[in-house]
Amino acid sequence: MDLVGIQIIQVLSGIATLALMGAGLAVIFGMMRVINFAHGEFMMLGGYVVIVCTEQFGINLWVAMLIIAPILVGLIGLVFERILIRFLYGRMIDTLIATWGLSLFLIGVITWIFGNVTRGVQTPLGSYSFGDYSEKTYTLVMIAFTVVIYLAIFVVLRRTKLGLIARGTMQNPSQASCLGVSPPRVYMVTFAIGAALTGLAGAILAPLNTVIPTIGVSYVAQAFITVITGGAAAFTGTVLASGVFGAVRQIISFQWTPILGQVFLLITAVILLRIFPTGITGRYFRRST
Amino acid sequence: MTGLLASGWRFDSNRHGTWAVAGVMVVLLFILPVLDDPLLLLQVRYYVSMIVLALSMAFIWGFGGIMCFGQSMFFGLGGYAYAISVGNIGESTAPFFLAMIIPAIFAAILGYFMFFGRLNDVYVAVITLAVTLALYYFINSTSGDEYSIGKARLMGFNGISSIRKFNWPGDPKALLSANHLFYFSMGLLIATYVGLKMLLGSTFGRVVVAVKENELRAELLGYDVRLYKLTVFVIGAAIAGLAGCLSINYKNFISPNAFHLSLAAQIIMWVLVGGVGTLLGPMIGCVVLLYVSFILGTGASGGGLNTYLIFGLIVMIFVLAIPQGIVPTLRDWREQGGRYRRAIAGAVLNLAEQLPAPGNVHVRAFGERLLGVLGPTAGDRTKG
After folding, report:
1. What pLDDT was estimated at residue B2?
2. Inter-chain residue contact A98 with B316, CB threshold 8 Å
3. How far apart are alpha carbons B221 and B229 in whole angstroms?
4. Domains identified in chain B, total number
5. Which ipTM score applies to this complex?
6. CA pair distance A25, B229, nearest whole angstrom
7. Domain span at residue B148?
8. Which run of H or of E encompasses A6?
9. Quick one: DSSP state of residue B254?
10. Do the Cβ atoms of A97 and B319 come within 8 Å?
C-alpha cells in the first residue's frame, strides 16, 4: 500500500515537472507559434537567479524563486524579443535556428561567468515519511505550484481583458490591429510573459535538479515534445500530454531505469504524433486554450 | 511534365562548376601524399570525414528541405555499427557497408513515423533532436558488461577504443597504410560529392527539389511526397554513417560524444554559414568553422565558453544578416550588387562561372511554363 502511494506521488510529480517545463513554451510556441529553442536556457537562467540570490545576496529562497526569477528572466526575454525574435515572426525555421544560436550564446555567457561546474540549491522543507518510504516534501510543494500556475494561466486567458486581447491577436493580428490593438506590442508582452513563466519553472525545478550551464538541453527536448503532442489548444494539450508522458516515464523508470523511462517517453511521443499528427487536442479541443 | 520525365540522369544546371570543384579535390588527392607530411595527411583525413558529414546535411536540408537537428545520430550510429561489427568479424569490408546500412535502416524507421505522419518541419527538428538525446543518454549508460553485442562491448561513456582500421577487402591481415587510407577517404569524398550532384541532376533529384519548394504542388502533380522525403532522409543518413566510419579510421576511437548535440549543432552551422541549398558552401563552411573551433581550443565535444559564445553569435548574426549563407550571398552580390559589392564578390568568386548554382536547377531545367507551376513565388501565393 505504501509502495502504491509513493508511486502515485512520483507519477504526479513526473506529470507536474513536464507541465511546468511546458508552461512557458505553451505561451511562446503554443500560442505565438514562435519556436524558442532557447527555452531550456531560460529555465537554466531561472535556476542561476535562485543560486545567485540565495548564495550571494542571502535573499530568502521563496522570494528569489517566485518573484525575482520570473521578473529577471522575463526582462531578459523582453530584451531578446526586441533585438532578435521580432525580426523573425512568421519565419519558423529561421526563428528555430536563431533561438538555437541564442541558446548557445546564453550557455557561453553563463559558462563564462560561473564556470562549467555543477551547482545545486539545497532542497527546502526536508522530507516526510510515507509508511516505509520517505519523499521530499518539496515535491508536493512543486506539484501544488504547478496546479496554481496553470489555474492562473486559465483564469488570465479566459476571464481577463488581457487574455482576450492576447488570444485575439494570436488568432488574427490584422483584425486586432483594426480594433486598436498594437500586435507588435502584444507579441512583445506575450513573449516576455512566456519567458517569465519559463524562468519561474526553472527556478521551481532548481532545488530538485542540479544546475549546470548545459542543463537546458535536457529540458528543451522534453518541453517541446510535450507542447507539440499537446497540439492546438496549447494549455489543455500540454496538461494532457504531460499526463500521458509523466505517467509513462515514471512507471518505466520505476520498473527499469530512468534512461529507459526517457526512451519510452520518446517512443510514446513518436507514436502519438503518428496517430494524431496535429497533437492530442488537434482534433477535439480546437476551441479551448 | 515531359520536361521532368525526360530530364533523365545527368548533372544539374552547371556541370562546369561540379567538375571544377571535383577537379580541385582530385588534384588534392594526388598532391597531398607527395608532400610526404604524415601529420598533414592525418589532419586532412579528419577534415574529409567531417566534409562528408557536412554534405549529408547539405543534401537533406538544402535540397530535401528536411531540418534534421540530429544528423550526428547517424554519424554516431555509423561509427558504432562499424566499431561493433569490425570487432566481431575481424575484417572491415562488411562493417564498412554496415556503417551505412544500419543508419539507413534507423532513418527509414524514424522517417516513416515522421514523414508518413506528415509532421511539419518544426516537429521533425524537435523529434530528431530528442531521438539524438535519447541515443546519447542510452549509449552513455551502457558501460556494464551486460551491454555487449557479440564480442564487442559498448563500454558506455568510456567509448570503444583501438578499433581496427580498414584492410584490403577479403584479407584481414593487410591493413591499409596511412597513404592508402587517405586515398580511400578522399576518393569517397569525391564520389559522394559527384554522386550527390548526379543524383540532384536526375529526375529523382529534381522532384526532391520540387517537393522542397512546394510540397502541395508536387503532390498535386502526382508525386508521393512522403516517399521522396523518406528516401532523401535515408540517403542522408547513409552518408552521415559513412562519415562516422571514416572518422573512426582517423582516430581509432568512438565515444557517445559522437551523438552529442554540440556536434549536431556544428553540422547545422556549417550548412547555415556556407549556404543552404548548395553543396560547395557547406563544404567550405565545415572547413572554416572546424578551423575556428580548433583555434578556439576545443574540439567537437568541447564545452569551453568561447566556442558556445562565439558560435551562438555567429548563428544569430547569420540568421539576421546573411540568412542565405556565404556562397549564395556572394553570388547575388556578383549579379545584382552595387559597384563595390560586385567587385568584392567578383574577386572572391573569380572562378566566376565555375561555381555550381544548384538552387536554380529546376528553374533552368523546366523552362518558362513549368516555372509557373513549381517556382517558389507561385507556391507562396497559394499558401498565403
Report:
1. 37
2. yes
3. 16
4. 1
5. 0.78
6. 28
7. 2-376
8. helix A2-25
9. B
10. yes
